[in-house]
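Researcher: Quick test of sequence recovery. Tokens follow.
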């Protein structure tokens, strides 16, 4: 009986020592936190489509205060293409060109003179630089560059006639792109464009008219 008790005691002691040794071998390994990629990978070329609304004014430089001018407004639909380059500090540089069909029009009527002037922008385009910040899933940016617009003017009554001209000027604005998928992004933007002066001729002679406009657009860009 005593031998049996001694054997059981020895077995329990051996199990205790073995368990303690196994516990000493267990090393808690810290769990590494997941790494979240901050870059939205905006690098590379892209093409896209966009649409929006524009409003502006066709006038004469140094005109007396209070003189009314056509204030064309309407819709536009276009395509664009460009490329982005990300620097080490998260700054994104880019270049983009666009061209859009437009129906931006207004008719100014003078009842007392039985005359009117209708101004219609039927297409516009730009070639711009961009600078933005890589915010991961979004890219806020500033943009500026060359702007062109084709405008048609119809005079009825005094100085009757119709003429068209291509205005060349500058544009500047801001926007933000949101990554919808790995390759598709949504682009929201505002731009102001000063298209400068262009000459128009009617039955009264030739003169310069100044065109400027604001526009708000939303687009889809496909990166590749």
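Model:
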């Amino acid at each position: 009986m005593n031998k049996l008790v001694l054997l059981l005691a020895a077995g329990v002691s051996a199990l205790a020592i073995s368990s303690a040794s196994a516990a000493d071998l267990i090393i808690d390994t810290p769990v590494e936190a997941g790494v979240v990629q901050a870059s939205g990978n905006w690098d590379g070329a892209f093409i896209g489509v966009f649409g929006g609304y524009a409003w502006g004014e066709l006038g004469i430089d140094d005109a007396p205060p209070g003189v009314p001018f056509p204030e064309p407004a309407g819709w536009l639909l276009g395509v664009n293409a460009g490329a982005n380059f990300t620097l080490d500090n998260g700054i994104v540089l880019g270049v983009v060109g666009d061209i859009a069909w437009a129906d931006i029009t207004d008719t100014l009527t003078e009842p007392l003179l039985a005359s009117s002037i209708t101004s219609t922008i039927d297409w516009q385009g730009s070639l711009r630089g961009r600078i933005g910040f890589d915010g991961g899933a979004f890219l806020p940016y500033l943009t500026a560059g060359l702007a062109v617009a084709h405008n048609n003017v119809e005079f009825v009554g005094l100085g009757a006639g119709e003429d068209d001209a291509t205005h060349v000027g500058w544009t500047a604005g801001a926007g933000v792109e949101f990554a919808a998928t790995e390759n598709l992004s949504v682009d929201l933007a505002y731009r102001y464009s000063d298209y400068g002066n262009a000459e128009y001729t009617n039955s009264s002679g030739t003169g310069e008219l100044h065109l400027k406009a604001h526009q708000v657009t939303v687009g889809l860009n496909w990166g590749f």
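Confidence is low (pLDDT under 50) at residues 1-38.
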